Amino acid sequence: xxxxxxxxxxxxxxxxxxxxxxGESIPERIGVADGxxxxxxxxxxxxxxxxxxxxxxxxxxxxxxEAWLEEQLAPETIEDTSCDLRARRFETLWHxxxxxxxxxxxxxxxxxxxxxxLRAVYSKRQLFEVMVGFWSDHLNVNLEKGDCIYxxxxxxxxxxxxxxxxxxxxxxxxxxxxxxMLVYLDGKENKKSGPDDIPNENYARxxxxxxxxxxxxxxxxKDVSEMARCLTGWRLKTKWGKGAVxxxxxxxxxxxxxxxxxxxxxxxxxxxxxxVVDIVCNHPATVRHIATKLCRCFxxxxxxxxxxxxxxxxxxxTGGDIKSTLRALFTSDEFKSAAGAKFKTPFRYVVSCLRAxxxxxxxHEGVVRYLGRMGQGLFQYPTPDGxxxxxETWLGTLLWRWNFALALASNRLDTxxxxxxxxxxxxxxxxxxxxxxxxxGLDPSRLVPHFIGRSPTPHEIGPLADYIAANGLQDDGHxxxxxxxxxxxxxxxxx
Length: 495
Fold this sequence. Notes:
The protein is an all-alpha fold. The chain folds into three domains: 2-79 and 343-493, no CATH class; 185-281, no CATH class; 284-336. 55% of the residues lie in helices and 2% in strands. The chain contains 27 helices and four strands. It has a two-stranded antiparallel ribbon with strand order 1-2. Strands 3-4 form a two-stranded antiparallel sheet. A hairpin with a 2-residue loop joins β3 and β4. The longest helix has 20 residues, at 2-21. Residues 1-6 and 416-425 have low confidence and may be disordered.
């Protein structure tokens, strides 16, 4: 085992060195916020990205927030070579489901988890990655159910990542016949082979309750039953081409249906699915539900009704165009005034720590383990609603956040000594880049704004000054602990 890990570690060290040449290093000089309130550029990077990488704040300030947003809304135009070096080597993410059955579950779980973390940390297409996370929870698939672990890699690539910034209707249509979703919500069991067969209603119910209309969207049990009839007959191959989706007309209920007040005529066969997707994606309740959920994710746990209404209007007017909807949300006054109002989920917290430090990681077990301890093991949420993003859900994770912050800053995330360990790059380099005399580089009044986007209050600076007075910052251990305390601070838990 060790013999195989040593060459891998060497490969990862090479990737780290090459990545630095593509901009994954800390610039010689970086600016920080200097006001009492959170800098607008920092706020944008904290929500539309997973937090600023050293130097990002200067870039957004220079080009302007709206220009940066437009750039992010066209991710295909953003060169992402350094991220690709780290993330593209996980081969199971590129296979079809049938090939994934040839791998052990542990390999599949590790690769999709590490790939997701590395894309979030290093991609320059930050808004795209944020939306990948949003839709992954919205269309949650738990790896641990049935064969989902073999099917989720293609779902991640062909459903979520393909449509993350596209049209909502295309996203829902792709998800409806995703092999992973057909297994997770039992769509492949939904059939009518005889007059006494009762359709499986699981996917039909979640399609309306979670994916489109919302729990208060006005649908009835009759709508669930009728929609389930429309969705009969979609199957997965079990031998040749294992995991591929096909439609079996012999298992489809081809009679007339009435869904949400609209008649679906008899005899349409697999086109019933297209009619269902059109009906739910164009429903006014869906417009409200998706707009509300986006505003709750990016503005506050209880977003103002005004911005929900405007966001919903753009969503409806553009036929569910996700880019246009996000543009309206991020340029709204309500967004601009909501800085620091969201409590970070564990995933966002971990990734924002790594990005703030300009960390060099290959997302091995040390990082993954802490995410699990904080309660957000990737692709492992047990129910179809996906991980929540509300404050009250995550307040109980603070102890593990503090432990992670100190372990990361001190380079103690891994202990096996074989693979390249996730580690913060030189804290001294970060401090020097922030500016000022080198010997004052760890002055908290200069360093803290880099992490929280504003000048610290006297109440916030006091404990850090006390730490310096008691311990000094002459050795690497105390420097690391000092930075760990900033990452563990209440101000850094919010974004």
